[in-house]
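Justification of resources, computational component.

The compute hours requested in this renewal are based largely on the per-chain cost of generating structure records like the one below. Each record pairs the submitted sequence with a full structure-token output. That output is archived, and it is also reused by downstream analysis tasks.
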Amino acid sequence: MQATVKWVDGKMFLGESGSGHTVVMDGPPDHGGRNMGVRPMEMILLGLGGCASFDVISILEKTRQKVSDCRVELSAERAEGVPSPFTKIHLKFVVTGVALKEVQVKKAVELSAEKYCSASIMLGAAGVELTHSFEVVEAA
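The structure output for this chain reads:
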């Protein structure tokens, strides 16, 4: 896997993934940025959410669950000072579908957290306290 991050100006950077996709990262004005993109630590949080969601959807599809929507709400705490790494992250999955089996959703979230999500496993190994919850919503 490859990526390139190029400085634009101020505290703005363009990140390009090996697959050719570009994202803008920028800092807040009080740190010399112009608030024109996500913060680098927000990218880590978004990456975690994307990785975990990918797993949960894949697992639910394999178990033939009829999912119509899935979102994960992430909340994180960071250490004081510099550096300020994440200390705690909570992922709350809200899975919507038709006649979803709660036990299947629970299992999918657990498998993602404990076995499949590379981002979760990496952050956990670095000492971040990761917790998970889920909510099942019946589709209208």
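Helices lie at 40-62, 102-116, 118-125. The first strand starts at residue 3 and ends at 9.
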